[in-house]
Design a protein that fits this description.
Elements: H1 37-43, H2 45-55, H3 70-75, H4 85-105
Protein name: 23962_t:CDS:1
């Protein structure tokens, strides 16, 4: 698993919620999609909507692209405005928390 994702908010382990590459569990919201870490964090339709909504609050005066790789979540390397990197890192961690909270309350 990617660095940082294996232990999620409140110390809950991803494997306890069927987010495990060895577990063939389907996503609750995306028909016929396996629930992988990448799907959970980036590709699920619910996660994508949370990312899109959150990026509206990141005002960098530039068009920023959403993260497409797990590494970008933890490095904010998708942010073109260097001065906004710390704000983006904070936003990314909060988005991951929001996705996790949404997932665990709606399963």
């Amino acid at each position: 698993m990617a660095k940082g994702i294996e232990t999620l908010p409140a110390g809950l382990e991803a494997t306890a919620y069927n987010i495990d590459p060895l577990n063939n569990t389907s996503c609750h919201w995306c028909e016929k999609e396996l629930q992988t870490v990448e799907h959970f964090a980036l590709n699920c339709k619910v996660s994508k909507e949370i990312w899109r909504t959150s990026y509206h609050f990141l005002e960098t005066n530039q068009e920023e692209s959403l993260s497409v790789f797990l590494e970008e979540i933890f490095s904010a390397s998708n942010i073109s405005n260097y001065k906004s990197t710390q704000a983006a890192m904070w936003l990314h961690m909060n988005v991951m928390n929001e996705i996790w909270c949404f997932y665990t309350t709606h399963r």
